[in-house]
Amino acid sequence: MSKKAKEIWKQVDQYFTDALIAPGDGFDTALEENRKAALPTIDVTPLQGKFLELLVRATGARRVLEIGTLGGYSTLWLARALPPDGLVVTLELEPHHAEVAKRNLEAAGLADRVELRIGPAAETLAGLAKEHAAPFDFIFIDADKSGYPEYLQWSMKLSRPGTLIVADNVVRDGKVIAPESPDPNIQGVRRFTELAAAEPRLSTTVLQTVGSKGYDGFAIAVVLH
């Protein structure tokens, strides 16, 4: 992609953000707190956060599972979409990231809708299954891409017919098409895709995206039965 194309993507992102997301409505303070805490700058964009919010609202979800909290920016969008008695269970590996997320959730007045669990996601997901947690209505996967195959398998166990599963960063700047790539993130996404394609209980598609974060995409799947 040319430098000019990337600049246009960023400008278009900014145009629609300015037009559709009111100042303060995009949780700007959380992004600033994440920056101050030196967290990786890999949050979803404001428009992508609003996309997640709309999906949760459209599906009428009351229980949301998020795999990968970081500083809680996407968590805020998910939580805001829920009714007062709704719940986001969000999983984060790094205690420092989790502390920043807690502060952001409290500052936004949404901490009461979020249960944050710290530890390796695979272990936490196994714990949820062992607890016989009620099925989730919406699942957002946005953690280490090498773990996506395992996260999908656990998501299936923690879902119900009608559950919507969204996985971020599956296009990887187009590098996902390289079958011999040594990158574990690429291989994780490719295996995730193979599992989704072979799973008769899922109907899955992928939307490629461009914007201020470059070239990537979402996998979107619904549990059929």
How much strand content do the residues show?
15-25%
Shape: globular
DSSP E strands, number? 7
Helical residue percent?
Answer: 40-55%
Domain count: the total is: 1
Radius of gyration: 17 Å
Strands across the major sheet, in which order? 3-2-1-4-5-7-6
Chain-averaged pLDDT:
96
Distance between the termini: 40 Å
Which architecture per CATH?
3-Layer(aba) Sandwich
- Low-pLDDT residue intervals, each spanning 5 or more residues: none
* Multimeric organization: single chain
Secondary-structure content class? alpha/beta
Succession of helices and strands: HHHEHEHEHEHEHEE
Summarize the structure in words.
With about 220 residues, the chain is of the alpha/beta class. It has a single domain (about 5-225), classed as 3-Layer(aba) Sandwich (Rossmann fold), CATH 3.40.50.150. It has 8 helices and 7 strands. The protein has a 7-stranded mixed sheet with strand order 3-2-1-4-5-7-6, sandwiched between helices. α7 links the parallel β4 (about 140) and β5. The N and C termini lie far apart (about 40 Å).
For this entry, give a set of tags.
225 residues, alpha/beta, Rossmann fold, seven-stranded mixed beta sheet, 7 strands
Helix and strand arrangement:
Elements: H1 3-20, H2 28-36, H3 46-59, E1 63-67, H4 73-80, E2 87-92, H5 95-107, E3 114-118, H6 121-130, E4 138-141, H7 148-157, E5 164-167, H8 184-198, E6 202-211, E7 214-223
Helix pairs in contact: 2-5, 3-4, 6-7, 7-8
Brief synopsis:
The protein is α/β, with parallel strands linked by helices and 225 residues long. The chain is built from 8 helices and 7 strands, in the order H-H-H-E-H-E-H-E-H-E-H-E-H-E-E.
